[in-house]
Amino acid sequence: MKKFNVEKETKNVINFIKKYYQENNLKGAILGISGGKDSAVVAALMVKALGKDNIIGVTLPCHSKEEDKTDAKLISDYYGFKLINFDITNTFDVFKEELKKLGNFKEEELKNSDINLKPRLRMATLYYLAALYSAINGQTYLVAGTSNKCELYVGYFTKGGDSVHDIAPIADFTVEEVIKIGEYLKVPEKVLYKTPNDGLSNQTDEDKLGVKYSDIAKYMDGETVEEEIATKIKKLHNNNLHKFNIPTYRR
């Protein structure tokens, strides 16, 4: 695997954010703080680039673990940015009640739709708050994305959910590289080394994917991985290409 210069790359990302904000006369950023490493590292980068007073973190519980909210507060306290709790559990439940009018569906039929509804409701909430704080402050707040390169490669995100954002600070870094940036920025260890999960399905990311992030990184880098693993990664990548490109008829 290629050598990763964490100091250089971290400074490059911070400068990238600063430059983009200056060139476009932007104010601040809204981002969902899940209690995991990706959102913690993005929060740290945004604070370094824009200052803690211009960052607003949002916890968006929806039948979630209380630990996630506690870990999110750990991050906001450490970096000193404002943290809002916006509970979307009732919104989710009202949606599910309305769905009953369409018929009686089996739990297995609803599972994937339910899992993906949560990040879509979260996305809508983040954009609502971004517009609100833009109006309050008279300058634009962007929604910051928190997906990393490994997740993106295999399509491990929700179309119309966490795939929707205005700036993507860690989209070109593997999971291992994100952790190194987190170590460099002194992200609290409890969050940085927490086993990644989506907070939606009670499974770890790697359980759901059926492959390890380290193997995805090796595969992307052209390194040898077991044939069975390589086949899985290739299949995940190809099956999710529709998430990146919308076929558009042109006259």
Would you kindly provide a brief summary of this structure?
The chain is an alpha/beta fold and 251 residues long. Helix content is 53%, strand content 8%.
Note down, in words, how this protein is organized.
A four-stranded parallel beta sheet has the order 3-2-1-4, sandwiched between helices. It has eleven helices and four strands. With about 250 residues, it is α/β, with parallel strands linked by helices. α2 links the parallel β1 (about 25-30) and β2 (about 55-60). The longest helix is centred in the middle third of the chain and has 31 residues, at about 105-135.
| Helix-strand string | HEHEHEHHEHHHHHH
Radius of gyration: 19 Å
Instruction: Estimate percent helicity.
Output: 40-55%
What's the name of the CATH homologous superfamily? HUPs
**Uncertain spans, ≥5 residues at pLDDT below 50?**
none
- How many helices? The count is 11
Largest sheet: 4 strands, parallel
Structural category: alpha/beta
Query: pLDDT average, as an integer?
Result: 95
Examine the coordinates and then state which fold CATH places here, giving the name of the CATH topology: Rossmann fold
CATH class: Alpha Beta
State the strand order across the main sheet. Answer: 3-2-1-4
> Under the CATH scheme, which architecture would be assigned?
3-Layer(aba) Sandwich
Q: List the domain count as a whole number.
A: 1
Note the beta-strand portion: 5-15%
Give the overall form. Answer: globular
The N- to C-terminal Cα distance equals: 45 Å
* Secondary structure tally: strands: 4
